[in-house]
Amino acid sequence: MATRFDPFREMDRVLAQVLASDRASATMPMDLYRDGDHYVLHVDLPGADPGTIDVNVDDRTLTIRAQRTPRTESDVQWLAKERPVGTYARQLTVGRGLALDRINATYDDGVLTLTIPVAEEAKPRRIEVQHGAAQASIAAPEPASAD
Length: 147
Description:
The protein is an alpha+beta fold. Helix content is 19%, strand content 31%.
């Protein structure tokens, strides 16, 4: 059986595979929600080497990096190679009112979970309102003594 080789089709296939791999490695799907007095961030990092996961905070920028290394079996003929390899990176600018010095990070089953507490000064609090006689005693200054 004769096969016809079309160099343009082959180049198109290789280029599409490379571009798809770059796009896939650049994305890091995530979920973010608030649960009481902390935020929870789940980031999908399937196949990432746990030792390469790095979480940094610089001012108000949270940076997450991880790496998936390529398999290097020798004497193997690849039939399909669609899983992206390389470095994943994502940066998030976070608002004020978070305790960034108390972030907890865990990695389990390909999911990185960050728990970010709300700072004490940003938590809702009740302000007591003074009324009646209590208000008059607080508002009236003490008379100065003539010694």
